[in-house]
Amino acid sequence: MKAGILGGGQLGRMLLQAAANYTVETYVMEKDAKCPSAHLCHHFVLGDIEDFNSVYNFGKGLDAITIEIEAVNVDALAKLESEGVKVFPATTAIRTIKNKILQKEFYQQQEIRSPDFTITESAEQLRKCAAFLPAAHKIALGGYDGRGVQLLRTEVDLDKGFDAPSVLEKMVDIKKEIAVMVALGETGETAIYPAAEMIFDPALNLLDFQISPADIPEQVLSKVEELALRVVKALKSPGIFAVEMFVDNYDEVWVNETAPRVHNSGHHTIEANYCSQFDMLWRIILGLPLGNTKPVMSSAIVNVLGAEGHSGDAVYKGLEDVLQLKNTFVHLYGKQQTKPSRKMGHVTILSNDRQELIQQAMKIKGMLKVVSL
Ligand code: ADP
């Protein structure tokens, strides 16, 4: 089997690491020859994943293609699909999810609970939407890692919005942010991973780490799982999906957004679950039985981000200390250059004691710093 990955970032890298267990010849396309995946695949192709001809030529001789980011040329994928290349997830699913407006309309059509929204085409139109506030303004195309979202609370915030087609979505009073990975096999079978929760505590300056399984009551968990499965079944495509949801103060559950691919919120599955999200996607692509999603242990993920004020060749201060911690697994993405807040790696911690997970996560955040020479 010849399988291609569009995008050569850290997700592609971990997908390639998992591919080593299977008989698969891997191809990666990315416009940076020094990307995290370049030296781990069998064939690296330098090219722009948003360009029709580049994607079409890359995919033409392959049996299957998957993505590690949604910003790909969907028309080229559709042509490849029509010519018999298997695309995971199906092009229709990528097309729907890639554009936030189409994604929200899809939830609406499918009667999947997601915050109310209106569409704004320009900054001028947004300025007329004061009555819709407080709201989250989300650019339709090209917004990743929080850069495509502005929280607008009052009328003065309207100037912070995007001057491009966007979704203006009612603000939810969020109690918890949850993500659930769901796998859908080619014959329609599903497997769902335990929910993960984002931990966000500004008082402790403890941003940006995640614990799985999430600490939520049984009846909320069943709503979360039901909603995640509904989203994925409605997309009608084999693949692996991350469904991000909000639990509000009334324990209602809302879909925030879906990623049609392996996802940051599933990194812990490498060590913490019997079958990792990466292994799961290869099983789907290769038409093998789905894997076991059960947790081996509870876990936390800490992101390793470039330190403020440092740009240049990366140096990992405190790495040796972290490597000595028990049940702790360091993943560095092989990026040579650091810059403030750049995602350079992650650390997974295993423990069935939630307090210990939180303490270790905080400790590691303090211990490991990515600086420049
Ligand atoms: P991205 O894909 O860039 O991470 P998200 O749509 O997940 O963008 O939004 C980023 C963050 O903004 C969310 O994690 C959440 O904290 C906040 N947010 C997004 N939509 C809403 C909403 N409707 N109500 C309240 N907060 C929101």
Structure description:
With 373 residues, this protein is of the alpha+beta class. The longest helix has 18 residues, at 218-235. Helix 1 crosses helix 9 and helix 3 runs antiparallel to helix 4 (91-98). Strands 10, 11, 12, 13, 14, 15, 16, 18 and 20 form a nine-stranded antiparallel sheet that branches. The chain has a five-stranded parallel sheet with strand order 3-2-1-4-5, with helices on both faces. The protein has a four-stranded antiparallel sheet with strand order 6-9-7-8. The chain has helices spanning 10-19, 52-59, 74-82, 91-98, 100-109, 123-126, 218-235, 269-272, 277-285, 319-323, 354-367, and strands at 2-6, 25-30, 43-46, 64-67, 86-88, 117-120, 135-139, 149-152, 166-170, 174-184, 190-192, 196-201, 206-212, 239-248, 253-259, 299-305, 312-317, 328-332, 337-338, 343-350, 369-372. A hairpin with a 4-residue loop joins strand 14 and strand 15. It has three domains: 2-88, 3-Layer(aba) Sandwich (Rossmann fold), CATH 3.40.50; 116-170, Dna Ligase, domain 1, CATH 3.30.1490.20; 174-372, ATP-grasp fold, B domain (D-amino Acid Aminotransferase, Chain A, domain 1, 2-Layer Sandwich). The chain contains eleven helices and 21 strands. Adenosine-5'-diphosphate is lined by residues 115, 136, 138, 143-146, 148-149, 169, 171-172, 174, 177, 244, 256-257.
